[in-house]
Amino acid sequence: MSEKSPLPPFxxxxxxxxxxxxxxxxxxxxxSDLLLTQASGGNTSVKINDHQFLVKASGLRLGxxxxxxxxxxxxxxxxxxxxxDIEKKQGVxxxxxxxxxxxxxxxxTRGPKISLEAGLHALLPNRWVAHxxxxxxxxLGLMPEEEARDFCFSLWGEDLKFCWIPPAVxxxxxxxxxxxxxxxxxxxxxxxxxxxQNHGIAWGSDxxxxxxxxxxxxxxxxxxxxxxxxxxxxxxxxxxSHQRPAPKGKTWYQVRLPGWPTCHFDTTPVLTDFPGxxxxxxxxxxDFIQADDRTAHILAASPREIDGHAQVFYxxxxxxxxxxxxxxxxxxxxxxxxxxxxLLIERPAEIY
Length: 352
Ligand SMILES: [Zn+2]
Known about the structure:
Blueprint: H1 15-31, E1 43-47, E2 52-56, E3 71-75, H2 76-86, H3 92-106, H4 118-123, E4 128-132, H5 135-142, H6 145-156, E5 162-165, H7 172-182, E6 193-196, E7 200-205, H8 208-226, E8 235-238, E9 251-256, H9 273-277, E10 288-292, E11 295-300, H10 303-326, H11 334-343
Parallel strand pairs: 5-6
Antiparallel strand pairs: 1-2, 1-4, 2-3, 4-7, 6-7, 8-9, 9-11, 10-11
Helix pairs in contact: 2-3, 5-8, 5-10
Zinc ion binds at residues 41, 117, 131, 133, 170, 199-200.
């Protein structure tokens, strides 16, 4: 990628050169854990000076980035300056278009597009930011806020600072809601953990090592609390064409959740990823069919695509199951589901 760049940001021995190594390590580490990231969800960034940041490109999975691919360089000050104008636009499509234009005009490298969540990364004050679709974090976001705060305080005391962001359409609306909440951040304190309800979490810190340490300290007790180890990953099997005929170039797959002690899954969207990946709410033939309470039939064009879809099905089923058991199932607002469908977001064409 560097030869395509109009800027030489990562000269050998420069601070950016070190940053890209650490950024790739952090990204791959977070991207290798199914309970943290599924399909192409999740993104990471590092601010390398007072106006440039390196942020994940869209289309690649977090676990696949390297020092040479999967990142773009952009001007985070330009993004911050442009965010207030997005809210002045009328309608979800106009706002989304304005946001996308802002991200594009702020991108300094040619080639891959910048991550849809670059606005979130630009706004957060921390040098390092990691956004993941943590299952434990998504459950914490569904838990009643007071109970969640008490639970977190019992684990970490004052060491972690939290901020809750209500359900939002990924991209422009999430960015606007984070911008609104920036004024709630107490002066002189760093908010380390942003709970993005019905979506995921974002960590911010001055160091990549501190983020990795915080992820471990956060995930382990929460996974234990929710019993996540009792829910094995999905099993994928292609369906024979006589079982479910598929359009040309595509295959129906059966995705099962074997060995789960219980499963309370239906197609009511609780996470933004679910309507982003599957089309059950338009007039076109569905690409996701619930076959029974722990099996889905999913249409995909390649083994790689079904792998990503199955990960999102798994995450959605797991969060639904535990949230229903606990009595805190709170679906995504219908307006957000509708907006995700018309914007076709969180489902960018993946670069292989
Ligand atoms: Zn996300």
